[in-house]
Write a structure and sequence with these properties.
This protein is an alpha/beta fold. It contains eight helices and six strands.
Length: 179
């Protein structure tokens, strides 16, 4: 199962406070992965909760623009991915390892992760899935972080969890020559 994490307008739009600078490069990696997974693809969306609780109150006090309902344009998948998204998993948390995603992966499944941002939602999803006993593969060149340094550091941390989590490239995962 391929989970494409949070390829949403709020992260794609260069004018957004949450813009991911290399979003387009991650999207290019995702496009290369999609044909190999067919119907075994889930797209996730980060959504603001109706009413933040606990530490999330301080988070949304810092990012008040994000206090918008699930149907708000900023939460939509980018057009190219909305057009192909058959399975969509919404969560008001960084980690997208929800019961819905777990059911799609299955108990002995493998979760391949791509999307944004490497240093937040991808990392949080990978760690939770690995804790649940799922084999996790993070596709480095189909992900992007808040900046290049954060992306590289997150990949380094994820790679420390081998063999539960493995970091790879699109070419290596698909068995294709890079370039």
């Amino acid at each position: 199962m391929l989970a494409v994490v949070d390829m949403q307008r709020v992260f794609a739009d260069p004018g957004s406070p949450w813009a991911t600078p290399r979003f387009d490069e991650a999207a290019a990696g995702v496009r290369r992965l999609l044909p190999a997974f067919g119907d075994r693809v889930a797209f996730t969306r980060f959504l603001a909760p109706p009413e933040p609780e606990g530490a999330w109150r301080a988070y949304y006090a810092r990012w008040p623009f994000a206090r918008q309902p699930p149907e708000a344009p900023l939460w939509r998948l980018t057009d190219e991915f909305a057009a192909v998204a058959r399975h969509v998993v919404d969560a008001p948390t960084f980690g997208k390892w929800t019961p819905q995603l777990a059911a799609l992966v299955g108990q002995d499944g493998r979760l391949v992760l791509a999307g944004v941002s490497t240093d937040c939602c991808v990392l949080s999803t990978a760690l939770a899935a690995a804790d649940a006993g799922v084999e996790v593969v993070v596709v480095a060149d189909a992900c992007a972080g808040v900046d290049d340094d954060a992306h590289a550091k997150a990949l380094h941390v994820l790679d420390l969890y081998r063999p539960l989590i493995r970091v790879t490239t699109v070419a290596d995962l698909l068995g294709a020559p890079s370039g």
